[in-house]
Amino acid sequence: MRISRRQLLAGVAASSALPAAAFAAPTRQFPKGFWWGASTSAYQVEGALDADGRGPDIWDAFTQAGRILDGTSARVACDHYHRYAEDVALMRAAGFNAYRFSLAWPRIVPAGTGAVNPKGLDFYDRLVDALLAAGIRPMACLYHWDLPQPLQDKGGWLGREMTGPFADYAALAVRRLGDRVKTWMMLNEPNVVAVFGHGLGEHAPGLRLGEDGILKALHHQNLAQGAGLRAARAERSDLMLGTVSNFSPCVADSGTDADRRAAALWDAVWNRVTLDGLFKGEVPALLAERMAAIVRPGDMELVRCPVDLLGLNYYSRNTMRHAPERPFAAGWGTPKTSRRTDMGWPVEPEGLYEQLLDLRDRYGNPPVFVAENGAAYDDVVEADGSVRDSKRARFLEDHVAQVHRALGAGADVRGYLAWSLLDNFEWAFGLSRRFGLVRVDFDSLKRTPKDSYRLMRRIALANGL
């Protein structure tokens, strides 16, 4: 499907109607071909949960169990499933040249394995064709948390049996879309899935299994990731393959030995299980004893797999304190900054620079793109209908500056994608938290570009896009 002239002009009109921002972003020059854009995930934006043969997933069950803060659901969300052309037009009007989205596993393979749903694949055909017609690089992520419920019923990420179904799904998706989609990510934030879904019970599937659940879910996602990378490569040799995770510097809340130990252990869990496995084929030394019963001979050879691209999601540093009641005796400390988003998260742009240099120095400077970076604020709609989100715009500008700084220090950074294109269903918070460059009225579904959208447009166009 091609974007109509009317849709494109509507997107341009929406962006140009924004009032001038209260600040002027400095013009920084980035390398030619640098990717500018935004990210979303299928479950958070698509809606249409019962449409066209989609199967149930773990977030459907989590919602039905009453675990969403504001009592809402993703049944409609942004209705991107039906309104994707309008959203692509907004990206084109912003000058974006890249878009990371996820495929909904239960929309394509409703049971997680076995029968394929042709209508699910047809939707992604339409989306990809619209992106290409708009000059936007489609960057597909295979798994952004929406595990088909039938696979969860068989144990989900607690079992290594997930490896085969994920590899089959990866091969299927690449076989259908790989002629047009050349950039593929396997997983999104396996550490968040493990910690909050299997250790603390705050995300789907809602399991409170502590350290054992966290480490099993981490390792089995690593195995599936390795199998998925190999399956995708076997289908096509012309792809850029990688994965995405949330990486953050882990710092001690104080100078005590106990707090330093907590920070080191959390760093091993949050960052190193994924990175050391992928790049070195190793289990972090601090976790070797704990993982001895989980890791079998030959596992780490499968986990270690060369990637063409690594996606980095960054929001803040992790400040950790000794907390014996928490997994790994690590609890959240008090960051040394007064800036907070409306999620309560600290605003620490320098941590992005630190993380990019960590990847440069410890893992051979792999090609990296910032796959998510953004902030939730309680936006106010002005009397004229505009959304003056100066805090979010400042957040983005401060982090873009740190990416530019890291490039100057030799980090191999290929792009910056804001989280998120649209206000959406923010997991356990429901519709109560807004991260979007574009405001979505969840009653009318009207899209309104914010000042942060205009900032990103200015940066993209200043770099010749």
UniProtKB/TrEMBL annotation:
Q: Which keywords describe this protein according to UniProt?
A: Carbohydrate metabolism, Cellulose degradation, Glycosidase, Hydrolase, Polysaccharide degradation, Signal
Q: Name one GO molecular function term.
A: beta-glucosidase activity
**Residues bound to substrate:** 44, 144, 188, 315, 419, 426-427
* KW Nuclease (keyword) present: no
Which residues constitute the catalytic centre? 189, 372
Q: Which Pfam families match?
A: Glyco_hydro_1
Identify the EC number(s): 3.2.1.21
Which family, according to UniProt? Belongs to the glycosyl hydrolase 1 family.
The organism named in the record is Magnetospirillum aberrantis SpK
Question: What is the protein name given in its UniProt record?
Answer: Beta-glucosidase
Q: Name one GO cellular component term.
A: cytosol
User: What reactions does this protein catalyze?
Assistant: Hydrolysis of terminal, non-reducing beta-D-glucosyl residues with release of beta-D-glucose
One GO biological process term is: cellulose catabolic process
Q: Where is the signal peptide?
A: 1-24
